[in-house]
Write a structure and sequence with these properties.
about 240 residues, 7-stranded antiparallel sheet, 15 strands, about 35% strand, binds glutamic acid
Length: about 240
């Protein structure tokens, strides 16, 4: 289980994401990746090895975006490789995931039977195709993640973005930690407060089964029954 960072803002968030990944490097990982949304669509860069390799690749291909997610992976399903690194993409959706999906094999078969093509060996990729399949039925990104969470079994912290809901990040937690970070005119999510230490000292810990919708100036949290709930804001002095 490794690292996650996400930001929704009105400025370019690439630097915040890379800084967040660097702050999570102490955990150990085998690959790193980033996805950014801008007017041109959804862009991904991944590298096996260190965050520095990803950072160098972004100097050559300087993608920008006001909405983004980033990940350091500790492989559990599929070898450490660029192909297996997160984010994973399905149609207009990008996803990062920490944890293990126990029923991924049966879900993968179902999704392949309905035409989804897998490009990695990970368990995580089933989640993004599952979310895309609910989107196709006309559900919002939030509702699609909620429906997907009902079908997946195992441990997860996940964050999802889409180029069709450009000002929104959806995240969910079950068995793996996830914390929201509150900023001014931008909001964050991380697998650990350390990832967000350079940008905020106000945090909201998600509880088991929570799904959150994060926008630039607001956030809402829903429990496992899909009722909106309020969670405590903690202020830290670092
Ligand atoms: N199980 C996922 C994978 O192998 C996520 C691993 C992680 O938590 O970094 O890609």
């Amino acid at each position: 289980m490794c690292g996650i960072v996400g930001v929704v803002s009105s400025r370019n968030v690439r630097g915040i994401l890379i800084e967040g990944l660097k702050r999570l490097e102490y955990r150990g990982y085998d690959s790193a990746g980033i996805s950014l949304v801008n007017e041109g669509g959804i862009h991904v860069e991944k590298k096996q090895g260190k965050v520095k390799a990803l950072e160098d690749a972004l100097l050559i291909n300087p993608i920008e975006g006001h909405l983004g997610i980033a990940h350091t992976r500790w492989a559990t399903h599929g070898q450490p490789s660029e192909r297996n690194a997160h984010p994973h993409i399905s149609e207009d959706i990008a996803l990062v995931h920490n944890g293990i999906i126990e029923n991924f094999e049966s879900l993968k078969k179902e999704l392949q039977a309905s035409g989804y093509q897998f490009t990695s060996e990970t368990d995580s990729e089933v989640i993004v195709h599952l979310i895309a399949s609910f989107r196709k039925q006309g559900l919002s990104l939030l509702n699609s993640v909620q429906e997907a969470c009902k079908k997946i079994k195992g441990a997860y912290a996940l964050v999802v973005i889409s180029k069709t809901e450009e000002d929104t990040m959806i995240c969910a937690r079950h068995g793996s930690p996830l914390v929201l970070g509150l900023g001014f005119g931008e909001n964050y999510v991380g697998s650990d407060v350390l990832a967000l230490q350079s940008v905020t000292n106000r945090f909201v810990y998600l509880e088991e089964g929570d799904v959150a919708c994060i926008e630039t100036n607001s956030f809402s949290i829903f429990d496992v029954q899909q009722n909106e709930v309020s969670r405590t804001v903690s202020e830290y002095t670092f």
